[in-house]
Amino acid sequence: MKELDGKTAIISGGAEGIGLGIAQVLGRYGMNIVIADINAEQLEKARQSLEQAGTPVLAVSLDVVAVEQWRKVTEQAVDRFGKVHMLVNNAGVGGAPKPIDTSSEQDWRWVVDVNLMGVVNGAQTVIPLIKAHGEGGWVVNVASMAGFVPLPMASAYSATKAAVVAMSESWHAELQDQNIHVAVLCPGFVKTRINLSQRNRQAQYESDDSLQSGSKLQAKLGQQMQSVLDAGAPPELIGERVVEAIAAKELYIVTHPNFRSAVDARFSAITECFKRAESSPLLADIVKQKIPGLD
Q1: Is residue 275 a part of any domain in this protein?
Q2: Is 157 annotated in the active site?
Q3: Which domain holds residue 231?
């Protein structure tokens, strides 16, 4: 994809996993890479890896819930590379696998602030830079198949990923006339350490409950998830798929087509609900109403 050559991408959560996989691939296409991450040790390892591969790289510390840190990332990116053309909102946490009635407020605030508001903070900070040079660009928000097929015991994670899908759909329509292509990446299981997100949990989200080792159920679920992730797709494959998809102007970037039956089942159930609503005598007048902008 020649359009990427010489352009600059900012990637949150870029020190490992999907973020690093995307960085490695974009670097091979000639992009300047700004990796931003909360984990300083992993960030330095990633910087060295990208430099050894010949990729122009800038590594910057970032907690995505802190807007002022996003501003520092963009300032350093512009100082180093001049312009920013792509934002990859990748940073995210898996949360703690718990039933809804035992999830704490701090559990929810942590996942919502990182997975949802972190994406908002990135967009509000970086998109103005993409608009400023008038050359167009890309925004890739990393959601999950859980945004389409919610996971039991992971309601906070599923809710935030569904929100990222919805935001991406909105921004796609909002920014397309400015030559900024927005896409949402919805991977299935990828070989990452998202199940170990607790290692980067910020102090303000800790509680007595979060500092405990957890229940036997949590331990069992964690072991099961670890085995699934270990067998997951390699992050660099996800990076290659991202490039393939943005070249084709895809809105939804799917990396695991084997999830199609589960997604189809969900949307089939929604369609059936609409059919039943259309046949309800209670809603006869509403069925005939036009929807401004959609009809």
Answers
A1: no
A2: yes
A3: 2-259
Surface-to-core class of residue 120, CB atoms within 10 Å of its CB (0-12 exposed, 13-18 middle, 19+ buried): middle
Query: What distance in Å separates the CA atoms of residue 76 and residue 60, rounded to the nearest whole number?
Result: 8
**Residue 252 resides in a domain:** yes
Phi, psi of 154 (to 5 degrees): -140, 50
Of how many residues is the chain composed? 295
Q: Of these residues, 29, 157, 205, 252, which one is catalytic?
A: 157
The tokens 């949307």 sit on which residue? 267
Full pLDDT tens readout for the chain, 295 residues: 899 999 999 999 999 999 999 999 999 999 999 999 999 999 999 999 999 999 999 999 999 999 999 999 999 999 999 999 999 999 999 987 888 998 899 999 999 999 999 999 999 999 999 999 999 999 999 999 999 998 888 999 999 999 999 999 999 999 999 999 999 999 999 988 877 778 889 999 987 665 454 556 555 666 666 777 777 899 999 999 999 999 999 999 999 999 999 999 999 999 999 999 999 999 999 999 999 877 6
